Structures are given as structure tokens and as C-alpha cells.
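Collaborator request, handled under Task 6.
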Amino acid sequence: MLVTVNGREQEIAAQTLHSLILSLDLDPSVVVAELNGSVIPGAEFTATTLHDGDTLELLSFVGGG
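C-alpha cells returned to the collaborator:
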């Protein structure tokens, strides 16, 4: 399916938000996700199904100091 991730169209095989995050080599525990303008809580990543044409913004936080 074709989705937009962080402003770039991508053809993906992932069916859920969680599987997409893993396929991008991101750690779900430090990712904030917005799907079609709505923030998705981390606890809902596994249950959130993706659809053709979805728009996602993914932010990954890292510690530092």
C-alpha cells in the first residue's frame, strides 16, 4: 500500500502502525506517532491498522545531555 511517512510517499507491506515502526528500525517505546492528524498512543500501535493513502508523522526521541 502507498502511505506518506514524514512527508515522503512510501510503498509499504506493513499492516499495522507497530509493524511499520519496526520495519523502519525504530524503537516503538520512544516513538510518537500521528496518523492522519491524530496522535496515536503507544499502547495502540499494535491495534492501529494502516490503509492506503494514510499520512503519518513519526518522531523518535533520544536522550542526551
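The cover message to the collaborator said: "Strands lie at 2-5, 8-11, 31-35, 38-40, 55-60. The chain is about 10% helix and 35% strand. Please let us know whether this matches your experimental observations."
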